[in-house]
Amino acid sequence: VQQGSRLGITTVVSTDSIRHMMRSFVDEKENPLLWASTYHAGECLDPVAVSEAKARRKAKKRSGVSSNSGMDYEGSGDKVEGKPIGKKQMAIEGYKAQSEMVIDSLDRLITAWEDRKESVVVEGVHLSLNFVVCAAENHNTVPPVHLFSFYSCPFQLCR
Question: pLDDT tens across 7-58, in order?
Fold first, then answer.
């Protein structure tokens, strides 16, 4: 945010505010993941379904078919296919699922800001290095900059 103000960029949008706007279009019962705290998003997911989805993604990677999602990460540590995974991994999967929803909306907002030739700083826990790289590739006005704050790391996994 401070770097943006040094460049004369006064508009700052947080990924949490994007998620909050998205909530006005969907009921909590329809999409509890969107309404959950980022840190508790994994509690909204079915552990067996997550494990099966991870196994399918892993199989696609082995067969050379890439996933549609820019949110897939290596080294996920799945357990046996179809079996529930641990709480720590569920927290990560919930974070990734929620982030993917927010990032889909954010990408459309970036397009709108580009069309209006507006500068904006986007901050928030939902941003990933994968998204920043993809955004820089898809939007020629997005510089590939991703600042990481040690204290904003979710789940205390980075410490």
Answer: 788 888 899 999 999 999 999 999 999 999 888 888 998 888 888 878 887 8
Q: Are 42 and 87 in contact (CB under 8 A)?
A: yes
Instruction: Yes or no: say if 95 and 128 are a contact pair by the CB < 8 Å rule.
Output: no
CB 81 within 8 A of CB 52: yes
CB 51 within 8 A of CB 81: yes
Q: Please state, in angstroms and rounded to a whole number, the distance separating the CA atoms of residues 12 and 96.
A: 23
**Alpha helix (H) residue ranges in the chain:** 2-6, 15-23, 32-35, 47-63, 87-115, 129-138
Q: How far apart are CA 9 and CA 6, in angstroms?
A: 7
Cβ atoms of 14 and 124 within 8 Å: the answer is yes
- What span, in angstroms and rounded, lies between the C-alpha atoms of 23 and 17? 10
Q: Are 48 and 82 in contact (CB under 8 A)?
A: yes
Tell me 70's DSSP state: T
- Give just the sign of the alpha carbon dihedral 33, 39, 45, 51: positive
pTM, two decimals, is 0.69
DSSP 8-state code for residue 89: H
